[in-house]
Amino acid sequence: KLARSYEEMATELDDYVKNLTNRLIKWVVIALDFLVLWGILLFATDIFPDYVRWDEEKRITFWLLCTISLLLAEIRFGTVIHLRQIGAGMILKRTTMLVLTYTLLAYVLLRAAHFMSKIGWRFVIIGLGLLVVLLFIRFVERWILKRLRSSGYNTRHITLVGSDVAIQNISDKLIGNPTYGYRIRHHFKNAEEFLNDNDGFDELTINDNEKKNLGDELYLCVPRSQRQGIERISRLCDKRMVEFYYVPPADE
Q1: Residue 191, pLDDT score
Q2: At 220, phi and psi to the nearest 5?
Q3: Taking the CA of residue 161 as centre, how many other CA atoms within 13 Å lie in the half-sphere pointing to its CB?
Q4: How far apart are the first and last CA of the chain?
Q5: 247 with 221: CB under 8 angstroms?
Q6: How many other β-carbons are positioned within 10 Å of the β-carbon of residue 140?
Q7: pLDDT tens digits, residue range 162-172?
Q8: Residue 46: DSSP 8-state
Q9: Which helix H or strand E contains 1, and what residues bound it?
């Protein structure tokens, strides 16, 4: 019993670390965005003929408003490369919208702060430069993440419930592509038995002493007529902080 408890705690700790790592990846990518912006601004101010005549307060205001603009843009169009099933098209779209939003916000805020210099065309150049650099970095970051996940790092464990072809398709899609970083923790093919496990259901026990560790995500494939069971599993996943996905059978 002590051994099982230790293994359970070790597994839960491992899952927590992996989820924390995924969040850390997101924040590292965002931090790099700001470093790229500051680097481009440092270079771009050389094309501002009157920048050398700005006093310290005006320079601080310029850098602060540019930083705030990117912060606001990140809130709306932040990176998605840490997500697993994200294609190149979505990365291109999100990055483009991020840079476009930043450029417009920075221009509006600087004009509101009475920067009367001709900054419009200069911010077009800054925006284009930022877009090119960020797109290059995004795809390098994506390539690195794929390599790490293929090697067994930053993985997510999933539980599959059901034997329908629809759940098998999910398995083939997620597990068949190692760059997604998914691993199967359990596959309960007898969905009826899983749904009707009333003995200790709230804890979802495998036997009297061992809990089922559902991993990070649970995919349930049963007929819609099993609505009560579906809702019970959904509530359980909320309680256990497991992402729940309902997969309709192929014949529905």
Answers
A1: 81
A2: -115, 120
A3: 26
A4: 43
A5: yes
A6: 10
A7: 888 888 888 88
A8: G
A9: none
C-alpha distance from residue 77 to each of 90, 128, 133, 229, 243 (Å): 11, 17, 17, 37, 23
pLDDT value at residue 197 = 64
For 75, the token pair is 């809130």
* Whole-number Å distance between alpha carbons of 199 and 179: 38
How far apart CA 188 and CA 23 sit, in angstroms, is 29
Asked whether the beta carbons of 98 and 74 are under 8 A apart, the reply is yes
Three-state SS at 174? helix
3-state secondary structure 139-198: HHHHHHHHHHHHCCCCCEEEEEECCCHHHHHHHHHHHHCHHHCEEEEEEECCHHHHHCCC
- Token reading at 137: 């970095």
pTM: 0.67
Q: For position 70, what pLDDT does the model report?
A: 95
pLDDT in tens, 172-195: 888 887 878 888 888 888 887 777
Do residues 79 and 30 touch, judged by C-beta distance below 8 A?
yes
- How far, in whole angstroms, is CA 70 from its chain's centroid? 19
Please give the residue that has the higher pLDDT: either 203 or 145: 145
Under the banding of pLDDT at 50, 70 and 90, the label for residue 117 is: low
Tokens read off for 184: 């199967």
Helix (H) or strand (E) holding 218: strand 217-220
- How far out from the chain centre does Cα 188 lie? 27
